[in-house]
Amino acid sequence: MTHQTFSAGVGLKPQHVRTILATRPRLGFFEVHAENYMGAGGPPHRHLAAIREHYPLSIHGVGLSLGGAGDLDRAHLGRLAALVRRYEPMLVSEHLAWSSHHGRFLNDLLPLPYTRRALDRVVAHVDQLQMALGRRILLENPATYLGFTESCLEETDFIAGIARRAGCGLLLDVNNVYVSCTNHGRDAGAYLAAFPMQRVEEIHLAGHAPRRDSGGAALLVDSHDRPVAEPVWTLYRRALERTGPVPTLIERDAAIPPWDELQAEAQRAGDTMAAKTDGGMLVSTC
Amino acid sequence: MSPLAERQDAFARALLDPGLAPPAGLAGPPDAVVAERFAVYRNNVAVGLIEALRSAFPVVNRLVGTDFFAAMARTHALACPPSSPVLLAYGGDFPGFIAEFPPAAGLPYLADVARLEWRWLESYHAADATPLALQDLQRLPVERLPQLCLIPHPATRLLRLAHPVLAIWRAHQAQAEPAPMALGDGPEHLLLVRPHAEVAAMPVSPGTFTFLARVQDGATIGEGVAAALAEEPGLAVSGMFSRLFDAGLFCGGEAADKENRA
Known about the structure:
The complex is a heterodimer of chains A (286) and B (262).
Chain A: E1 2-6, E2 8-11, H1 17-23, E3 29-33, H2 43-54, E4 57-60, H3 74-87, E5 91-95, E6 98-101, E7 104-110, H4 116-133, E8 138-140, E9 147-148, H5 155-166, E10 169-173, H6 174-183, H7 188-194, E11 200-205, E12 209-212, E13 218-221, H8 230-243, E14 248-250, H9 259-276, E15 281-285
Parallel strand pairs in A: 2-3, 2-14, 3-4, 4-5, 5-8, 8-10, 10-11, 11-14
Antiparallel strand pairs in A: 1-15, 6-7, 12-13
Chain B: H1 3-16, E1 26-27, H2 34-56, H3 58-64, H4 66-79, H5 94-99, H6 110-125, H7 134-138, E2 148-152, E3 157-161, H8 166-171, E4 188-193, E5 200-203, H9 206-216, H10 221-231, H11 237-246, E6 250-255
Antiparallel strand pairs in B: 2-6, 3-4, 4-5
Helix pairs in contact in B: 2-4, 3-4, 3-6, 9-10
């Protein structure tokens, strides 16, 4: 089925569901964290089902640990597959990160060394995930605070290699690009230039907390607790020049503001896309 | 162990143990203080788990204050991190931890409040089912009723608590400042149900509690009623049935096959 979708979306928060269902804002899609809907039933599923009746959905996993040295958690893989079958989302994404180790879930998106061996591991895990879901996934670039001395590949080459070998799409988190490049003293524009944009099927925009470490170096924290920063909007416009219109999500996971504020940010993303392309309308194929 | 596994092993150990130095082999730009960058991850892990517990136990948080809660939750989270990425299922061990946490000893009812909050969450996320109406039961010949096993709705939870915490729990649902309140004598028998939309908590008599506990264990109505009357000789059985069915407590029934039951 082919239909037209206004392509800016917002991360769905429980406190906004009532307003959204009552006012039905013009919006391209909603995104949820998969793990928040892995209970058996109750109000969360009732609310998500009601949203799904009116909007396309994106399911964003935050706990599969695709970068983990150990095997993927098969039970978790099964839960994710069941959720995807239940809600038939337009997009499914996960992170280039690890978060579980020896059966303990560390609840953060932890960084990987960019080595050939780590690349092989992630490719195998993305393959396994795509087989389990029976569909392509999008892999998100990380926000990182430090790297590893054994890394021998650029992050952009590492990501391009995974996408090429596993045949997955990419979720470009522009805030993560800005945060990581600032933290590692790199040029975000050069990062975007090296990023395999032809595979980008979704963009994330979020806010970050600016700090400095005691050595005086800038240290940005990917906090998702405030509006998208201006330099990130600038990078977003540059990214759009190469991606064309692409579903773009406003993420807010802490200090959740009233709905209108997130809707206004999504509107800005839509307007930015419209200014860069023709009308901000996107033909998406589901 | 592969180099990647070794790397993640050292990283994970240092994340959970603030006494350990950051692992070797970390890299940042020339002026960066690598230990401070590692501390961002350490903080993310701890704060993420503290906030997961805070959202699961909002009344405990209100009763002790955010700083005390954070310290208590951090101690528990670093010692017992989740075993699953589904954080909805994280916190089941927290009430038991609170009961043994010396700084909380001055609030002897706190662990019972936490037990109530945890069962409330279980009920909230339990599977959906259509409640059975009392009329459905009344259609059966009355002589068959004692042999019937009732199937509890998946969201039904029973709690027998040493302290009567329902009033405390209710008074601290809103963001309002906690007001002093007299704590009654325990124990308290509570029932959590979610017949349609939201979870409801209600006190039940000891006899009703016994009936429900037996039914949950697979007893027939007849066996449950006998146990309930033994516990509470004055129990009005028909009134109990009306209340329980009004609360949407059951989602089905099946005839007990006495021959095949242990």
